[in-house]
Target: DUF1876 domain-containing protein
Amino acid sequence: MTATKTWNTEISIVEVDSEVRAEARLRGKDGGQLVGQGTARCNPADENVPDIGDELAVARAMSDLSHQLIQRAAHDIEMHTARPVERLRV
Model:
């Protein structure tokens, strides 16, 4: 059996002064969603390059989202098998 599923990720970036906040919102499974968050700050001694702050904040938000998805999968496995999951690898 072959099935195609689509999950969508929306990323929002907000920059205030020298701080960038990113939010990665994953929508998919049964209409549910997960939200990952990430932040980046420009060191006052560094040159302000907004694209770098965006990249760092988004990468951190996606990493947070990834960890939440692994935790959810581990929980779902435990509920299905009635046994604890020792460790899932990313």
Remarks:
- The mean pLDDT is 91.
- The CA atoms of residues 29 and 68 lie 14 Å apart.
- The longest helix spans residues 50-81.
- The longest strand covers residues 8-16.
